[in-house]
Each structure stands twice: as C-alpha cells, then as structure tokens.
Write a structure and sequence with these properties.
Elements (H helix, E strand, L loop, with lengths): L3 E6 L13 E6 L2 E7 L3 H5 L10 E3 L11 H11 L5 E5 L1 H10 L7 E5 L5 E4 L2 E7 L7 E6 L5 E4 L18 E5 L16 H11 L4 E4 L7 H12 L4 E2 L5 E3 L1
Parallel strand pairs: 3-4, 4-5, 5-6, 10-11, 11-12, 12-13
Antiparallel strand pairs: 1-2, 1-14, 2-3, 7-8, 8-9, 9-10
C-alpha cells in the first residue's frame, strides 16, 4: 500500500456538530501515524484501524483542539491493551500538559520533545518539522514515504510562515483555512482560504486540501477563494475522507 492520509477531524478550534477537531491518520504499509489528535479523533480513528495498530503520534502544538484525545489514547493503551512505548513526538508544552492530565504519561508513551527543523522516522515514514507563525510553539509537518511521495500539513499558522519552508516536491498539502475571506483573517495568526491557496501555489504543491475551517463556515466560500489563489481546484477536508498518493 502506498502513502494514504485519512481525515479524522478537521473542525477549527472546537468541534462542529458533525466534525471532530484536527487529526489525520497517515499510513504506509503497516505504519500508521496519527498527526494531531483533537477532540473526537480517537473515536474516528477506530473506524480505520485498531488502537494497537497505531505506530506513533505526532502533535503539532498544545492548543487543545489539536491533541486532547491523546488522554483517551493513554487510557486505552494503559488499561485496555496494557501496551507501553508508543512513540509520541510533541512540543515541551504538549508533554507538560499531557503529563499533568494523564497523571504521568510514561512508560505508556515514549515521548520525544520536538523543535524547529527536527527530522525523525516512525516505521517506514520520515517526518520533518518547521515552526509556524502561531500564538504558541507550533510545528508544521512534512511526511515522506520510501517511494518519494510526500504530504505537508501546515497545522495552525499566520501568513508570516511559508509552506515552502517544508521543501519542494509536495504531493498533497493540508493547509489550514480557518476563515473564508481575507477580511476575517486580518490581524489573526490563522489563514484565510486565499492565503492558504497562495501558500500552496508558492510551494508548488500538486494538490491542496483546505482544512481547519471555523465551525459554521460555508465551504463553498472557502473553495472559491482558495481555488482563485491556488489556480486549480481544491478539496475541502471532510471526516473519514482518504487521499491516496
């Protein structure tokens, strides 16, 4: 099996009635990595793999909509499956908050504190991080398969960060587009749909998925502005959608 990305959740900042917050399952052969685990994502994950099949977790930052289902994962691994040593890569803030809420995450998680520019492997996949323009330490993530296919995930960012910081040859870009119009995004460290489209076009991304839409947004507005800036059709992320590279 090649590189696949399954949307576990894509609602921005808090869950909408039918959509969990940020989370993506990136898979290659028997490697399955959750990139972010916002509220609702652990439930959705189990529609696609069994919890013990998870190879690792990569957390972009410590805002709750991107990671709090890690606490449920801890309970499942510790008390249902009695498993230890799952690799988790996240910021120091992620580590401190998870440790507090779970009353100690070791030895269930093999925690690796992340920093700007870090590179590491989980199973057959390689990861590269880039610090974004956000309110707390936040890392965008690039994932490369052994065959050379790649996914880039912006996480949360303002326009001062560029997707091209993750390098060339991006096959699929998952870019946050919290706001449908530029006017809504003024002075905010999140992107509009047009800014997301511009970022993907500048990076030469071959396909663009807009994600992290503010609940209640009109996806058609996001798509229209995103496509105008990107110069090609875009996809709006939806839960359980799978992209195969």
């Amino acid at each position: 099996m090649g590189l696949t990305v399954t949307v576990l959740g894509c609602s921005g900042s808090y869950p909408s009635p039918d959509c969990a917050c940020s989370g993506y399952l990136v898979s290659h052969d028997t490697t399955h990595v959750a990139v972010d685990l916002g509220p609702g994502c652990l439930s959705n994950l189990q529609h696609h793999i069994e919890i013990p099949e998870l190879s690792g977790v990569v957390l972009s930052h410590a805002h709750p909509d991107h990671w709090v289902d890690l606490t449920g994962l801890y309970v499942a691994l510790a008390h249902r499956y009695e498993l230890e040593g799952l690799p988790v890569h996240g910021t120091r803030q992620n580590h401190e908050m998870a440790d507090l809420l779970s009353a100690g995450v070791h030895p269930v998680f093999d925690w690796h504190v992340t920093g700007d520019g870090d590179e590491f492997a989980i199973g057959s996949l390689r990861f590269r991080l880039s610090a974004t323009d956000h309110y707390i330490e936040t890392h965008a993530v690039r994932i490369d398969s052994p065959e050379g296919t790649s996914v880039a995930y912006s996480s949360d960012t303002g326009p001062a960060w560029e997707l091209s910081a993750l390098g060339a040859g991006i096959d699929l870009a998952l870019v946050e587009a919290t706001y449908g119009t530029d006017e809504e995004a003024v002075g905010i460290k999140h992107l509009s749909a047009a800014q997301a489209g511009e970022a993907a076009r500048a990076a030469g991304a071959r396909a663009l998925v807009l994600t992290h839409l503010w609940p209640g947004s009109d996806p058609a507005v996001h798509a229209r502005h995103g496509e105008a800036a990107y110069g090609a059709p875009v996809t709006i992320a939806t839960p359980h959608e799978r992209y195969t590279l």
